[in-house]
């Protein structure tokens, strides 16, 4: 139905309708794709990282997990995943960190070759969709892995994603999806990552009560029930 390539540093946003799936595929080793999600009908209802993690008793995201909204609904479900671990805690890289870590660049000096930050990309796409920087919430970093060390520090696993790895989201609500192909802020490498990511959108089958994501945890089923009730009253 739709396909595009997100080049390194690229940003992208669009509303993806309920009943469609989005597949992300890494076109090189070491990809990181940062994402924000909002209920497109009511953008005050958006991806809630704390509720998503505590309800599913996890600090990572993979097949079976769902991305929950502030109102306990399911924005999207992870229906396929070749990696087994995506990062929900690492955050989005700032302009200051990009300048300090990779060298200061500007559009005025190098035009479109300047090194973009996740925060800037998110703000630009939020504004395009009638939102502001106040609407930034904790994001998901697809293709990245961050584990906790015994001392509690976050440990970024270099090279976690390999070329060809993919993850597929099924949209359970009409969702504003905002993407930034920028480095994970916990990746302290000295070169700006340059891994394109392919994005594909296609139709998919709606879940029922036997669906893998619905039955993955009891909390997931309750979130799906909230979502189904929401649709029953709004369609």
From TrEMBL:
Q: Which residues form the DUF1989 domain?
A: 5-176
- What's one Pfam family the UniProt record gives for this protein? DUF1989
Entry's NCBIfam families? urea_degr_2
**Protein name per the record:** DUF1989 domain-containing protein
What are the top taxonomic ranks of the organism? Bacteria, Bacillati, Bacillota, Bacilli, Bacillales
